[in-house]
Amino acid sequence: MPSMLQVRSEGSRRAIVRLSERKWRNRVFEKPRKLHGEADTSPSDKRTLWFVTQNRHKYQEARRTLDPFGIKIRMLASPKTEIQSTILGEIAKFAAQEAAKKHKRRVLVEDSGLFVRILNGFPGTFSSYVHDTIGVGGFLRLMNRQTRREAYFQASLALASPRGSSQEFSGKVHGTISHKPSGTQGFGFDPIFIPRGARKTFAQGGTQFKDKYSHRAIAFRKLARWYIRTKI
Ligand code: ITT
């Protein structure tokens, strides 16, 4: 016969487990935050696209691009498997197919990077790691004596279903690496990338400027046109 104390502690243990499960669900399937002037995207329905990313900037940029097409998007801040490859599309596709099976829903994954010509495409698929380790300052030091500063950003998207099918889209923006960081907006390498045809960095230009030129906006617009055409 269990004592009162044991019954109580078993009950509170179950309550703690229930609470932490709910907390995890709420954190992973993020509630949408309303952006200024945009329609609320809740509640999610079968056509809502879940974007698996832990990068809120990527999510906000995707959301701004898809919103005029009337496509709802939500952030799924769950970790995903990133295979080692020099091809962005392969990394995105593998992660999307795995995440779709895991979460039993259609999901979107984006892998992106900065490719510098004189460095033979470095940091490329290692951009996130390079940014986290040496940062923008360290990267500029690598480019110190280089006069050829052409580079491009690429974003590769994969939309995968739990049954294994997937669709891929990509976007590229060419430009140059500046000699010093400028601007405070955006994220990652935005303070040192000047898109071709412009005179300021992504970080100086702000959201409208970024959406006009960016690799991500190009890729997400391709996805939007396909999505509307196929009405899946
Ligand atoms: P998730 O994997 O969770 O989506 P992440 O930031 O790790 O987020 P990636 O693995 O695709 O995403 O890494 C891309 C990196 O490339 C990113 O962290 C930046 O350093 C850089 N990058 C990509 N797109 C960029 C952009 O639009 N502006 C500035 N830097 C960018």
Molecular structure report:
The structure is a single chain. The chain is of the alpha/beta class and 232 residues long. It has 2 domains: 1-30; 34-230, Maf protein, CATH 3.90.950. The protein contains 7 helices and 6 strands; from the N terminus they run H-E-H-E-H-E-H-H-E-E-E-H-H. It has a 6-stranded mixed beta sheet. Helix 2 links the parallel strand 1 (49-52) and strand 2 (73-76). Helix 2 (56-66) packs across helix 7, helix 4 (127-133) packs across helix 5 and helix 6 runs parallel beside helix 7 (215-230). It starts with a helix and ends with a helix. Mean pLDDT is 86; it is low at 1-27 and 31-41. The chain binds inosine 5'-triphosphate. The site of inosine 5'-triphosphate (ITT) has 21 residues, from strand 3 and helix 4.
Strand content of the residues, in percent? 15-25%
Distance between the termini: 57 Å
SSE run: HEHEHEHHEEEHH
Largest sheet: 6 strands, mixed
Mean pLDDT: 86
Strand order of the largest sheet: 2-1-3-4-5-6
CATH class of the largest domain: Alpha Beta
Q: How many strand units?
A: 6
User: Based on helices, strands and strand pairing, what is the structural class?
Assistant: alpha/beta
Bound compounds, please?
inosine 5'-triphosphate
> Helix share of residues?
40-55%
CATH architectural arrangement of the largest domain: Alpha-Beta Complex
Low-pLDDT sequence parts: 1-27, 31-41
Continuous helix count: 7
Gyration radius over CA? 21 Å
Shape: globular
Give the quaternary arrangement of the chains.
single chain
CATH topology of the largest domain: Maf protein
Number of domains: 2
